């Protein structure tokens, strides 16, 4: 069941990310500085970021599963809180550091950090359901 919970949690967070970034695409494109064509679509797109993000969601979900098992986190509320904590206190600060040194707008940190927080919260919640 561990593998199934990891796969479902990773897939759910990946789909959530698609919705998150589609909803926030205009401010994200502006903050990220990606060049767009006349139709407002990013130039030179590739499938690679989508494949890498799916792989990374599997890595994050797998490690969160390991941490939760080691810590005895097995209730929905504890998984949700644990995931929100990992996103809020591990991943989002790291995103902020990277964006600050790259002199990116703080809006980018809010968008990307928000996905990290809520995506990890979703992973944590789902991992405790199986």
Features:
130 residues; mainly alpha; 5 helices; 78% helix; 0% strand
Task: Lay out the secondary structure.
Blueprint: H1 2-23, H2 25-32, H3 48-71, H4 76-101, H5 106-127
Helix pairs in contact: 1-3, 1-5, 2-5, 3-5, 4-5
Give a quick precis of the structure.
With 130 residues, the chain is mainly α. 78% of the residues lie in helices and 0% in strands.
Radius of gyration: 16 Å
In helices, the fraction of residues equals: over 70%
Q: Report the β-strand fraction as a percent range.
A: under 5%
Report the major sheet.
none
Low-confidence stretches: none
Mean pLDDT: 96
Describe the structure.
This protein has one domain. The protein has helices spanning 2-23, 25-32, 48-71, 76-101, 106-127. Helix content is 78%, strand content 0%. It contains 5 helices and no strands. It is mostly helical and 130 residues long.
């Amino acid at each position: 069941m561990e593998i199934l919970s990891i796969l479902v949690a990773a897939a759910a967070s990946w789909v959530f990310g698609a919705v998150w970034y589609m909803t926030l695409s205009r401010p994200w494109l502006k903050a990220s500085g990606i060049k767009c064509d006349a139709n407002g679509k990013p130039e030179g797109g590739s499938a690679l970021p989508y494949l890498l993000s799916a792989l990374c969601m599997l890595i994050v979900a797998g490690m969160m599963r390991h941490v939760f098992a080691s810590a005895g986190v097995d209730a929905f509320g504890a998984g949700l809180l644990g995931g929100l904590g990992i996103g809020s206190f591990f991943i989002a600060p790291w995103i902020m550091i990277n964006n600050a040194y790259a002199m990116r707008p703080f809006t980018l940190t809010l968008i990307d950090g928000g996905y990290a927080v809520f995506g990890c919260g979703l992973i944590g919640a789902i991992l405790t359901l199986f």
